[in-house]
C-alpha cells in the first residue's frame, strides 16, 4: 500500500537585520506540531529543518502516534540565495 505524502510549503528567508542568519518554517498548519530550521546559511537552515522533522517523528513514535509523511515545497524570498539542489524547484514555484 502506497502512502501519499502531504505537501507542506516551507518559507525560507534571511532574518531581518542579520546578514548571515536564515530561517525556514512551515506555512501550513499541521495538527499537533510545527517545524522550523535555522542556520548561518540557507542550506544549514534547511538541514536543521530536516533534523527537526526527524526529532518530531521520534517524539510521535515514543508517544504511540502516527507522524504524517511530508513532502516539502520550498519558497524563497527575493533576498535569499537558493541552494543549487533546490534551484529548479524554486523556479517552478515562482512561475
Topology, element by element:
Layout: E1 6-14, E2 22-26, E3 36-39, H1 42-62, E4 70-76, H2 87-94
Parallel strand pairs: 1-4
Antiparallel strand pairs: 1-2, 2-3
Poorly predicted parts:
none
In total, the number of strands is 4
In this structure, how is the largest beta sheet organized? 4 strands, mixed
Determine the number of helices (DSSP H or I, runs of at least 4 residues): 2
Estimated helix fraction: 25-40%
Tell me which oligomeric state these chains represent: single chain
Kindly estimate the percentage of residues that lie in beta strands according to DSSP.
25-35%
Distance between the amino and carboxyl termini: 34 Å
Structural class comes to alpha+beta
Amino acid at each position: 500500500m502506497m502512502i501519499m505524502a502531504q505537501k507542506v510549503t516551507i518559507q525560507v528567508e534571511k532574518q531581518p537585520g542579520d546578514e548571515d542568519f536564515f530561517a525556514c518554517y512551515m506555512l501550513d498548519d499541521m495538527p499537533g506540531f510545527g517545524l522550523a530550521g535555522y542556520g548561518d546559511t540557507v542550506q544549514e537552515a534547511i538541514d536543521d529543518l530536516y533534523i527537526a522533522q526527524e526529532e518530531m517523528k521520534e517524539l510521535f513514535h515514543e508517544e504511540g502516534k502516527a507522524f504524517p509523511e511530508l513532502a516539502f515545497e520550498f519558497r524563497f524570498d527575493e533576498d535569499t540565495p537558493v541552494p543549487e539542489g533546490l534551484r529548479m524547484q524554486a523556479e517552478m514555484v515562482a512561475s
